[in-house]
């Protein structure tokens, strides 16, 4: 039989294409399925939007399949919603904040074949049967140290807009460990720059009361503070109203809160120097990537700081405009010292 080179090459090409097609179908069938459940809504340009950015980045860069579910603010919905997700065909269910911790602790043991990621909280592993849960905490104390240092640099400077009193402020949503972790770092950072700096501290008793946030911020400004740090989520939006009214400064939290108002209310935005950001986006992308690599430490909690990209400060146009270059350089140096372990930031956890 005469060898037909063209026919032989055509067969090889057909077999190759068939193998590639089957391989592609196999990859598609094995695509990781992730559900992100928010006990709130998108659009806050802060915490929940940051979580969504991380998952969307994983869709684009890691090729996962994902769905983002907005559970709203009615606590009665959260457990039934998560139970339904856990019974679905999702490989990983992501549910963050301390408000969902007990629900995850309850549901995860009933679905041992599923994986759960809890962020900005940790489950109680001593209860057992939680080997399928990975918890993420953020070193908000490290980020807060940096903005505390920045506040002290500015309040002790002769820059226009800052008074001669060495006073800065902090407003927390509630007197709980995670909020006090912000406070501890903020105070330590300020004292690192100048031990004589006074830090005023107030708690609103709520994370959803902007009017209370404004009231407390006005009181702190009237007591001599020229910068107030928002540790109160939505309550802290009132701080920005107070800053605009008194023509004083504020520091945002979780995401770059300057972006909340730079288009809708540029004057208000101009008083938001920077924000201490919990990089929820980075942490969730990192977790999904490590899962795909088989390296995510389920059954454990990790605390992510500057070194892991878990926290940071917003170096936006307003920051670059208000903060002198020498101060920006000093802040970078302090951040590096924290990463290198030269500065050990205190924490409210365990106290």
Which assembly state applies to the chains in this document?
single chain
> Can you identify the CATH superfamily of the largest domain?
Response regulator
**What CATH architecture of the largest domain would you give?**
3-Layer(aba) Sandwich
SS-based class? alpha/beta
Order of strands, widest sheet? 2-1-3-4-5-11
How many helices? The count is: 12
- Element pattern in H and E: HEHEHEHEEHEHEHEHEHEHEEHH
Measure the end-to-end span: 87 Å
β-strand amount: 15-25%
Q: Write down the Rg.
A: 24 Å
**CATH hierarchy class name of the largest domain:** Alpha Beta
Short structural description:
The protein contains 12 helices and 12 strands. The protein is α/β, with parallel strands linked by helices and 351 residues long. It has 2 domains: 28-139 and 281-304, 3-Layer(aba) Sandwich (Rossmann fold); 140-280 and 311-340, Rossmann fold, CATH 3.40.50.
Which secondary structure elements does this structure contain, and how are they paired or packed?
Elements: H1 5-29, E1 33-38, H2 47-62, E2 65-70, H3 75-86, E3 92-95, H4 101-107, E4 115-119, E5 133-138, H5 140-155, E6 167-172, H6 177-193, E7 198-203, H7 210-222, E8 227-231, H8 237-246, E9 249-254, H9 266-269, E10 272-278, H10 280-292, E11 301-304, E12 311-313, H11 317-322, H12 325-340
Parallel strand pairs: 1-2, 1-3, 3-4, 4-5, 5-11, 6-7, 6-8, 8-9, 9-10
Antiparallel strand pairs: 10-12
Helix pairs in contact: 2-10, 5-6, 5-12, 7-8
